[in-house]
Specification:
heterodimer; A: mainly alpha; 4 strands; 70% helix; B: alpha/beta; Rossmann fold; Alpha-Beta Plaits; 6-stranded mixed β-sheet; binds adenosine-5'-diphosphate; binds magnesium ion
């Protein structure tokens, strides 16, 4: 275990700077994930709406009730100045006037001028409510044109809209499961980038040190076998990656302020497997003895590249099919795939998640085999093509 | 005859178009301090790397301890200690930890290893520096650490590739003495260098390399006997008439003369009292002269005569 021990010592020597990196990464991920949850919470936040029902029919009251189900209704004096004031001081987000003749016009399928609203400028709430009202009236109109009576059309619309909001809520809070909160989803979402960066910055540096030509020559002259040596390198990197991963998990618990439960364990396990993949990538990359600046470049390319291609930063729906079909050949794609299943963004099934695990493990295994091969060919001497490097040997 | 430890036969190594080793053969016996002497770029390091199976080669065969050497000949590697031309230690580990790491690749047993490390530390005189990191060591001490890392496991065959490059004289002497001590303790040693003085000083047998070829081999006396020069006499003399120079050139055993910058060099081959006979000529012509000195041939002269270029010329 000589190699393993040396790696450990070297890592320890580098720990202060390594820790600085890890802490920066954790802070970034905490910020990123708390932003993410704020965003989606914003959509869930109820708007403060005041309604002036000037029509006062059963239809208009039905609409008011529907709005009241999803938002807070505030009572404000029906006076232009007062309304503007309350909008300004954020006592209300939106003021809706249901114009007189609403019910009649709706029944006739005429949706012009049935509402009026006060707003200060194009805020989120005006757009949101405008869209909602459009959808509502269009839907009613559609049901009516199918020949439904008005009360049925209204209740069908209500049902349809509430289903839709359910879906859109789901999409936004990524929390189809009570055990897997928004914070977690975001935290795990960003993890590939952070893991890759942290691991590369530390593990690869150590591995590159171990791999320095002179030191490797000396090691290769000794009676330790190449595969034993490589195995210890894997073990050492694995050990370190595991430590980083545990740290991330601990931070995850602190962020969430409770232990992982239920489905969250799937995500925990998912990230563990991904860590193994990252460790394998690290060992693989460092077998090529990249120089420091090249290593930094590789870190960036791999960290950012994998993250963008596989949907760490941008939702995968936005990515083109072409990109996604390429991304399938990258381990992070399957990490995100599992993550999205766990978050119910795509339908959850434990078989599906396990399949993602297996694919990732496949990547790790393939990388380990490749590394063994590369090291055998490059370092065990007899098979090396030596016209690669001129500097180190010639004095 | 003693056992053959290393046998290299007809080794050819190419780097692309460059032929780094050209049908190179070598045989080293047990207990020798074998010197591989040659200017930079002559292929010493390449020879060592091929010998250790660190590099592949195009042709030839290599046997160590009578067995074929391959990258997986761990039983052979076990008995070899290697000190590379470049210092190969971890900057992140202390002197002690470095020796421990490399020694640990050979010796698993903790107690035994500790003993070996302590002995190695003492051997290279780094007792006061065991807790130091390599960055804090001077060039000479660093070289000594490099050596300690290579010999701690008490190998039977020790290979040193230019261990004294960029080393202060004190460390250099210590290293050279150390090598002789290792030899006395029973190790076979291969020592490469482009400093002929060192090779002359410690090596029992020497091979001279140039451009990937072995140009000469033997003990240092054997090598010197290979060339006709046995003595170079230099006399500082302000004025030397041509007829006197001709007289001197005509003396027995003198095969060449050269007069320039007020210095007369006379190259002699064999014979006794060459200096006296030359001074005799000068005295008869009543010519005054300044300092007189004679030089015995060096390996540089050997090299010069065989290859036509001086070892020194190639140094940069
Ligand atoms: N990896 C390499 N690739 C190409 N040429 C090399 C390489 N290593 C050494 N050489 C060349 O091979 C020749 C012998 O080099 P080397 O064995 O290092 O000489 P020495 O150790 O005697 O100084 C030199 O001309 C050197 O430039
Ligand atoms: Mg060399």
């Amino acid at each position: 275990m000589q190699v393993f021990k040396a790696m450990f010592k070297i890592t320890k020597k580098r720990l202060p700077s390594a820790l600085a990196y890890i802490i920066v990464f954790i802070v970034i991920s905490v910020i990123a994930s708390s932003n993410a949850s704020k965003d989606s919470k914003f959509e869930m936040t109820k708007l403060k709406i005041c309604i002036f029902d000037e029509d006062d029919t059963s239809e208009s009251r039905e609409l008011s009730e529907l709005i009241a189900q999803n938002h807070d209704i505030v009572e404000i004096e029906n006076d232009r100045d007062v309304i503007i004031d309350s909008l300004y001081y954020k006592r209300a987000d939106y003021a809706l006037v249901i114009n007189e003749g609403y019910a009649e016009k709706l029944r006739a399928g005429d949706t012009a001028d049935i509402f009026a609203s006060y707003c200060l400028d194009e805020s989120f709430s005006t757009v949101y409510m405008g869209q909602f009202l459009d959808e509502y009236t269009n839907s009613v109109k559609a049901y009516l044109s199918m020949g439904m009576p008005i009360d049925e059309a209204l209740s069908c619309t209500e049902e349809a809209l509430s289903q839709e909001t359910d879906v859109s809520m789901l999409r936004n809070d990524k929390g189809g499961d009570a055990h897997y909160s928004v914070d977690f989803a975001a935290y795990f979402q960003y993890m590939p980038y952070i893991l890759i960066s942290a691991v590369f910055i530390i593990v690869c540096q150590v591995l590159v040190t171990m791999n320095r030509r002179d030191i490797r020559f000396r090691t290769n002259c000794s009676c330790i076998s190449s595969s034993k040596y490589t195995f210890q390198l894997f073990l050492g990197s694995g050990f370190f990656v595991l430590a980083v991963w545990l740290l991330f998990m601990a931070v995850g618990v602190m962020l969430n302020k409770e232990m992982y439960t239920g489905r969250a364990w799937y995500a925990v396990f998912n990230s563990l497997i991904f860590s193994a993949v990252v460790a394998a990538i690290a060992v693989f990359v460092s077998s090529f003895e990249p120089a420091d600046n090249i290593l930094n470049l590789i870190t960036q390319v791999l960290g950012l590249g994998l993250s963008f291609l596989c949907g760490v930063f941008i939702p995968r729906e936005i990515l083109s099919d072409k990109v996604l079909s390429v991304a399938r050949f990258l381990p992070a794609y399957w990490y995100i795939n599992a993550n999205e299943m766990i978050a119910d963004v795509i339908p959850f099934s434990s078989e599906g998640v396990i399949q993602c695990y297996l694919i990732q493990l496949g990547f790790a295994a393939a990388l380990i085999l490749l590394t063994l091969l590369v090291r055998k060919v490059r370092y065990s001497g007899a098979a090396i093509s030596t016209n690669v490097r001129k500097t180190a040997v010639s004095h | 005859m003693e056992n053959t430890v290393v046998k290299i036969q007809d080794l050819v190594k190419r780097y692309g178009d460059l032929i780094a080793l050209d049908h190179f053969s070598l045989e080293i016996k047990e207990g020798e301090i074998f010197g591989l002497l040659g200017p930079n770029g002559s292929g010493k390091t390449t020879t060592i790397n091929c010998l250790l199976s660190l590099l592949s080669y195009d042709k030839g065969s290599i046997e160590i301890f009578g067995r074929e050497m391959t990258p997986v000949s761990y039983d052979i590697k076990k008995e070899i200690g290697i000190i590379m031309q470049n210092v190969a230690v971890f900057d992140e580990l202390t002197v002690y930890e470095n020796i421990d790491y490399f020694c640990g690749l050979y010796i698993k047993d903790k107690e035994k290893r500790k003993k070996c490390i302590d002995e190695a530390v003492k051997f290279v005189g780094l007792e006061d520096f065991v807790k130091f990191y390599p960055k804090k060591l001077s060039g000479g001490l660093l070289r000594r650490l490099n050596i300690a890392c290579g010999i701690a496991h008490k190998p039977k065959l020790i290979i040193l590739d230019e261990p004294t490059v960029a080393v202060d004289p004190q460390s250099r002497n210590r290293i050279l003495e150390g090598i002789q001590e290792l030899s006395r303790n029973g190790a076979t040693i291969i020592y490469t260098s482009h400093y002929m003085e060192e090779v002359e000083q410690i090596c029992t047998r020497i091979a001279i390399m140039d451009k990937g070829k072995k140009v000469a081999e033997g003990t240092k006396d054997e090598l010197k006997r290979m060339i006709k020069n046995t003595e170079t006499i230099t006399i500082e003399i302000l004025e030397l008439p041509d007829n006197v120079l001709r007289d001197i050139s005509g003396l027995d055993h003198v095969y060449d003369t050269n007069y320039s910058d007020g210095k007369l060099s006379v190259y002699c081959s064999g014979g006794k009292h060459n200096l006296l006979r030359i001074l005799d000529v000068l005295q008869k012509k009543e010519l005054g002269f300044g300092r007189v000195y004679t030089e015995l041939p060096t390996l540089n002269d050997v090299f010069l005569e065989i290859t036509g270029t001086a070892l020194r010329d190639k140094e940069e």
